[in-house]
Amino acid sequence: MKTFSQVVRNYWVDLILLNLAFLLGCIPVVTIPASLAALCSAVLRMQRAQDVHIFRDFFRDVRTRFLRSMLPGCIAPVGLALFFLGWNACMAAASGRGRLPLLAALLLWLYVVFAFSMYAVPLAAQLELPLRAVFRNALILLLARTWQNIAALLLVGACTLLLLLTSPFLLPLVLFTHFSLCALICMSFAEGGIRQCIAG
Fold it and tell me: Which first-to-last residue range defines the signal peptide (predicted)?
């Protein structure tokens, strides 16, 4: 099992290629869920020091796991879209103290969507379990591994915020590493829980 720094050091070219494959896989919008699952599978293979053939494995995973990854893979994009809609509505409507409960609810929503997806997408991609079992295991891991989930959310959020704040200057990073790096952060924190599901 390779650590975050070992994966970055040993697979940095593969992470760039994986990011490019992910961006290409998302061009037809309907393949975004399958591309997320394929991204998680590729990162898990890197962490487990398995042979990684980025484009061949990625697009094979997109093709073979398309239907299976559709529902788990839709949770993150739809959940994030609802979060941003709620955020805009909260900023426009509420003021002062009335805003705090809404902001707290939105942050809780963001955590639940992020953490649930962090487990549901790779579990659906890796295991031949019924989706009901995948969702049950993802919910259990969301509740049981709270601190790991929060740490992953904060790191991914910090990377994304840094990218947004330095927008025109670091924009090439989106093309080169952002999505694969965020997936590596998530899988580094989630891998222990995923391994428990595979063993159990």
Answer: none
